Amino acid sequence: MSLALKGIKKTYPDFTIDVSVTAQKGELLTLLGPSGCGKTTTLHIIAGFIKPDKGDISINGKIVNALPPHMRRTGLVFQDYALFPNMNVSGNIAFGLQMLGWNRTDINNRVEELLHLIRLPGYGKRNVTELSGGEQQRVALARALAPSPGILLLDEPLSALDARLRKDLRRDVKRIQRELGITTVYVTHDQEEAFAISDKIAVMNDGRIEQTGNSFEIYNRPETRFVAEFVGTTNSIDAQVAGKTGMIYELKSLCGRFNVKFQGELTAGLKVSLLVRPEKCVLLDKGRTEKVNNYSNIVEGMVSNLEYLGDSTIIEVKLKNCVFSAKIPGTVPIDTGETVRIGFNPDDCWLI
Ligand code: ATP
């Protein structure tokens, strides 16, 4: 089923949600953003637990604003599993089906099918309190999927688990979502998780969606400073448009002149921020083979900090009005206090 939120508004005394977003049939849409940006509220508006002040929620092209939660064909998985502790695994998975009046044989068959899907065959009679966190969350997923919802809603489903288990389970979630072809809205504050599983990401900030796109677009072409900074480290240099040759804009700044490939019309004198990711930067000279004249953008400054990360080193260089970071593979033969040159290409930076 497809999903569309059009002009959804909900105002609380200290907070306003204002979102429009769509998910195609079978798509996994992630709402990504920091704590308190309105992700759960948006999910609960889709599920029907919260009524918006304005706007339309459409499922498969039909406006469902007036439908109660159980009529919307959505299945919700909570962060803290919310399993029924007095029931065994089968009882938890079967609960919704009993409410819908399914007969005993059909319920048993469906529960068996789901136990295989979540890779817990033979676990039906176990008490849920005896299961690990990861197993409990898989049972919660099966419970939500049992009545074959058209849209699956997952609210930070992995956040209570340790890092290793989170990675294993997110693969399972993606596999199950693909296998069933179920339209899914996934809420998380973890950008790596969002990049790993999403077809489409909507980055939320303060009740609004700042940008919607696939993982590549969100990481490589963030449209706002918030998105750029929320999904990874970004260098930002204040600059002014000085001129244009073809698709390359020339910028002037306190740290020198830079070239940036940019589609769109910018007038000379316009104030912009030049953004470039640290991993797109190279260290010039100092035992490196990269040639200075291969890079039309170069910053030069004193190394203020070095962080060795095992497979790479972060070099922080003090420029006139900012600190610039470069992530260089392996180790580097330099010390803090030295002056270095860092290069990057017009293709690897962008403007906001
Ligand atoms: P988290 O990741 O911490 O769960 P979130 O992005 O899911 O955060 P929400 O739980 O949707 O954020 O909350 C967004 C904002 O809306 C918060 O500032 C919260 O205080 C406010 N809010 C949510 N529900 C209500 C309510 N019933 N009354 C007043 N304010 C509310």
Quick take:
The chain is α+β, with helices and mostly antiparallel strands.
Description of the molecule:
- With 352 residues, this protein is of the alpha+beta class.
- It folds into 2 domains: 3-230, Rossmann fold, CATH 3.40.50.300; 235-351, OB fold (Dihydrolipoamide Acetyltransferase, E2P) (Beta Barrel), CATH 2.40.50.140.
- Helix content is 24%, strand content 36%.
- It has helices at residues 39-47, 89-99, 104-117, 133-145, 163-180, 191-197, 215-220, 225-230, and strands at 3-12, 15-23, 28-32, 54-59, 62-63, 74-77, 151-155, 183-188, 200-205, 208-213, 235-245, 248-253, 256-261, 271-276, 282-284, 297-308, 312-318, 323-329, 339-344, 349-351.
- It has a 6-stranded mixed β-sheet, with helices on both faces. A 5-stranded antiparallel β-sheet has the order 13-12-11-14-20, with no helix packed on it.
- Strand 7, helix 5 and strand 8 form a beta-alpha-beta unit.
- The structure holds adenosine-5'-triphosphate (ATP).
- Adenosine-5'-triphosphate (ATP) is lined by residues 12, 15, 33, 35-41, 189.
Topology:
Elements: E1 3-12, E2 15-23, E3 28-32, H1 39-47, E4 54-59, E5 62-63, E6 74-77, H2 89-99, H3 104-117, H4 133-145, E7 151-155, H5 163-180, E8 183-188, H6 191-197, E9 200-205, E10 208-213, H7 215-220, H8 225-230, E11 235-245, E12 248-253, E13 256-261, E14 271-276, E15 282-284, E16 297-308, E17 312-318, E18 323-329, E19 339-344, E20 349-351
Helix pairs in contact: 2-3, 2-4
This protein binds adenosine-5'-triphosphate.
Adenosine-5'-triphosphate is lined by residues 12, 15, 33, 35-41, 189.
